[in-house]
Design a protein that fits this description.
The strands form 3 sheets. Strands 4-5-6-9-8-7 form a 6-stranded antiparallel β-sheet. Strands 1-2 form a two-stranded antiparallel sheet. It has a two-stranded parallel sheet with strand order 3-10. It is α+β, with helices and mostly antiparallel strands and 251 residues long. A hairpin with a 4-residue loop joins strand 8 and strand 9.
């Protein structure tokens, strides 16, 4: 079995010392030089270990001040479930209300955007075919907690009243309800969640550090005929939100 890299071993050691309350939440850690001397490793190993724990939300770095134990904070719960599709109201707003926050979102839509190869594959169309792309920032008490980029085939909604997800008489009612307005029944969605580190743009938009841990969800809605009608990339910061899947049971 390969030997564990030194920085991962040190990260485990720092986690242990935090768990044993050697350093209190909000407390400042000793200098990297001091920890390096205590652990018998170089300062670069300490830096990598601390960066990992910062990305996981256990530590936080403060420019010009040092590294601190992250204070516990309540994470917003986001429930993923087909049963939460509503003719009126927003599941996101309901989730935020449950933790005493005001949920809202901002969006920007671009029509007739050529589909990149991955999006085309997910939508079952040709690369370069036109799509409607909508970028969302979901807010809790005015602070961003989720990003989403949605793609819909333009040949599906072009020329209809639902071509703009956040515009017109059916703005903001969700994919399922909008598609129903043009005679398309959405039967199910497929979601593929995976953890990864935030890129620079995501970190800037979410107000988190670059390389912080996020959950990336690839979601695709399908019609009852099996056609993909929308696909989206959803990004949720792990330190701010927990994701829960609700699975309806048929009887």
């Amino acid at each position: 079995m390969p030997e564990q890299p030194p920085y991962l071993r040190i990260a485990d050691e720092l986690r242990r010392r935090i768990a044993e309350h050697e350093w209190s939440p909000g407390g400042r850690l000793p200098s990297r030089a001091q920890i390096a001397q205590e652990c018998g490793v170089g300062e670069n190993v300490i830096r990598r270990a601390q960066e990992l724990l910062i990305s996981q939300g256990a530590l936080e770095g403060r420019a010009g001040s040092g590294t601190y134990v992250a204070a516990p904070r309540q994470r917003a719960r986001m429930v993923r479930s087909s049963a939460r599709e509503q003719p009126n109201g927003s599941p996101f707003r309901a989730d935020m209300k449950a933790v005493g926050k005001q949920g809202d979102w901002e969006s920007r839509t671009e029509a007739k955007v050529p589909a990149p190869a991955e999006i085309a594959s997910r939508l079952g169309i040709n690369e370069g075919d036109l799509c409607v792309r909508t970028m969302y920032e979901f807010l809790a008490d005015g602070k961003p907690v989720q990003l989403s980029t949605s793609w819909e085939p333009y040949d599906l909604t072009g020329g209809t009243l639902v071509v703009l997800p956040e515009g017109g008489p059916h703005a903001g009612v969700g994919v399922v309800n909008r598609m129903a307005e043009i005679g398309i029944t959405v039967s199910h969605a497929v979601e593929q969640p995976e953890p990864r580190q935030a890129n620079a743009e995501e970190a800037s938009l979410l107000g988190i550090q670059k390389a912080s841990l996020v959950t990336h969800i690839r979601r695709t809605y399908y019609s009852d005929q099996g056609r993909p009608v929308e696909t989206a990339d959803i990004v949720v910061p792990a330190a701010l939100c927990e994701i829960v899947y609700e699975i309806p049971i048929s009887r």
